[in-house]
């Protein structure tokens, strides 16, 4: 009895290696990723806010409400970044391509869609937090925006992105 092991095609092997390198990069360069993510938050807040917004990239911090009675700074910590929600998608995508090279293009499209969705959801989470701080004040708004609603936005958004990833990657 012999077990036939299907070899991964060369382009698929390269894709798997690139995805795994990207995953490792997210782990080892998470500070750079958080800097980019908080800079994006600052850009979005600058567009929608009537008060001043400042980003301090080296601290992964965005300050908003500058010039108002309630300025506040938000720091993008490792726990709050979307990197660790994107990471499992990349690893699962690499495994899927390694096991079934013929679905490579579907997995990559699904990965791009779900990864983008996770980043957008995390930006929405930051905007929710900012909106609640402006509406309810710093203490109450931060509590509701960070602890309760922010967590719910991340969980439901991450779950929706995962479902979309699996559906897009495995549909025929």
TrEMBL record:
Subcellular location, record wording: Cell membrane
Major subcellular site: membrane
The keyword Cytoplasm is assigned to this record: no
Transmembrane feature ranges: 81-99, 111-136, 148-169
Domain of life, per lineage: Bacteria
Keywords: Cell membrane, Hydrolase, Membrane, Protease, Transmembrane, Transmembrane helix
Membrane topology, record value: Multi-pass membrane protein
Metal-binding as UniProt keyword: no
Name of the protein this chain belongs to: Exosortase P
